[in-house]
Amino acid sequence: MKFFEQVAAAATRNCSMVCVGLDPDMGKLPEAVKASGKAFFDFNKAIVDATKGLVCCYKPQAAFYAGADRDGELRDTISYIHENAPGVPVILDVKRGDIGSTAAQYAKEAFERYGADAVTVNPYMGLDAVKPFLDYDEKGVIILCRTSNPHSGDLQNLVSGGKALYEHVAELVRDQWNWNGNAALVVGATYPAELAKLRKMCPELPFLVPGVGAQGGSVSEVVKNGATPGWGNLMINSSRGIIFAGSGDDFAEAASRAARKLRDEINSCRA
Amino acid sequence: MKFFEQVAAAATRNCSMVCVGLDPDMGKLPEAVKASGKAFFDFNKAIVDATKGLVCCYKPQAAFYAGADRDGELRDTISYIHENAPGVPVILDVKRGDIGSTAAQYAKEAFERYGADAVTVNPYMGLDAVKPFLDYDEKGVIILCRTSNPHSGDLQNLVSGGKALYEHVAELVRDQWNWNGNAALVVGATYPAELAKLRKMCPELPFLVPGVGAQGGSVSEVVKNGATPGWGNLMINSSRGIIFAGSGDDFAEAASRAARKLRDEINSCRA
After folding, report:
1. Measured between beta carbons, which residues in chain A are less than 8 angstroms from residue B113?
2. Which of A50, A265, B7, B26 is most buried when burial is the number of CB atoms within 10 A of its CB?
3. For residues A255 and A9, is the Cβ–Cβ distance under 8 A?
4. d(CA B27, CA B151)
5. Measured between CB atoms, does A159 come within 8 Å of chain B?
6. Is B268 on the interface with A (CB under 8 A)?
7. Which has the closest alpha carbon to A41: A69, A16, A13, A72?
8. How many Cβ pairs within 8 Å bridge chains A and B?
9. Distances (CA, A) of B38 to A229, B61, B64, B72, B103
């Protein structure tokens, strides 16, 4: 099944637009987990077991595993999700971008070495940087458009021909890069007006929306500006707000409560 | 010693602007090396031994190691260069770009886990994505500006306020992001007019120039448009043209000859 069909099926089954970001950070892990030789995996396993009925997808951020030299635990986490939360797909958040032959190696890394179902990609280098990912037609390719960080406007807001750079990216993805129907956009929750504009421009593209919770984006604004009828075209990511909701022995239950609360808040905004 | 001082010292000592790209690809490795359990490392070791007196820096492309699940050989290659080609710095070509806390993890990956002396970074997300790298003031941070690939103009050539996107990137780096004096630009050899324009805009920034050799960029155009007096502000990368110059048992000698030829060609264009 194609990635976005998987997302829609999981979202429908769990009545959820929630994507849980699996971004372990040794300094923030509960004491009970820290001592383990595979602390990131053990932590993720507990989070997945506690939240798998409440989400439409998971999104591990590769940087946390890379910085901690724990690539094996990233691979094991993705395998664990596939085996123990069947039907819930995994986005590997890598934001890669490089020229053709090199991008092909990164696609191989994400989809074959790690077994991810989707990947985030940076559009700055143009089509060459994105095509090797898009060519995996069963996989999702989620392209940075308007990102949630404070300085995202440094380049993304530059206006050319009456349209901001991020709008040019959205048009490229919508009109030229989506030949396999497997492309989507990253649009930050922290910029609701831009989210509304992009949804109007691209009513059918799925959006991955980070930035609610710790980064301050409003859930109701995201739903109002980004949701469309049905399930699967909006994935609202929360990482720290869910996985670090508790820090004691009951951290998994706290994560489950936080995921349920976010899911229900989203659904009540839709109603 | 700061990265760009290291480059200048190595360039002066070896009379060379050549950067050798260490991009091993199992399908292209000589038969004699392929059989080894650490084929990438053995290949790189032979290339480094044969070229270390002819270069100003090395640039392993992380994607090749990531795609082949050979991260350990990347780390060992960088250590080998530091021990056996002392004073020749290493750029880890990763083109990362992510928000603050995540970029900090990628900086840790490049500079601490792998021990690289410099890194390539993507500017699309703005200052947040670059600052955690720039904060390592001894390390070099080489920011994608005008890349060498065919579709690089998809976004980079969009004109805003009379200037192309890549010119805005150059201005940001020159005027705002270089507070530690450790920033530089990636400018492709395949776009000589843009290279000339950027050199005029940024006479003092070091440029890393990929795209000669297999990608078709002209050495004489690069030197004419990109070089300034002295050593260290131009690093001309060749990967396949050097490391795969030969495919037999004498591959290292062939690489040495190709590196010397490129070095001498560059120097004769400067004269």
Report:
1. 66-67, 69
2. B7
3. no
4. 26
5. yes
6. no
7. A72
8. 161
9. 53, 17, 14, 9, 30
Per CATH, the homologous superfamily of domain B3-270 is: Aldolase class I (3.20.20.70)
Tokens linked to A241: 């707000």
Position A188: which residue type? G
Within A57-215, strands assigned E span 57-60, 91-96, 118-121, 140-146, 159-160, 163-164, 183-187, 207-209
In chain B, positions 20-59, which contact chain A (CB-CB < 8 Å)?
23
Reported pTM: 0.97
Task: From chain A, pick out residues whose CB is under 8 angstroms from the CB of B129.
Answer: 149, 151
- State yes or no: ipTM above 0.90: yes
Assess B87–A contact: CB distance below 8 Å, yes or no: no
Contact assignment for A124 to B156 by CB distance below 8 Å? yes
Which residue type, as a one-letter code, is found at position B78? I
B155:A124 CB<8 A: yes
φ, ψ of residue B13 in degrees (nearest 5): -65, -45
| B235, β-bridge pairs | B208
Which residue among A95, A131, A224, A261 is the active-site one?
A: A95
d(C-alpha B165, C-alpha B168), whole Å: 5
Q: Closest approach of chain B CAs to the CA of A208, in angstroms?
A: 15
Q: Domain ranges for chain B, please list them.
A: 3-270
Local structure of A225: helix, strand or coil: helix
From first to last of the 271 residues of chain B, give the pLDDT tens digit: 999 999 999 999 999 999 999 999 999 999 989 999 999 999 999 999 999 999 999 999 999 999 999 999 999 999 999 999 999 999 999 999 998 889 999 999 999 999 999 999 999 999 999 999 999 999 999 999 999 999 999 999 999 999 999 999 999 999 999 999 999 999 999 999 999 999 999 999 999 999 997 788 999 999 999 999 999 999 999 999 999 999 999 999 999 999 999 999 999 999 8
Q: Does the CB of A12 have a partner CB in chain B at under 8 Å? A: no
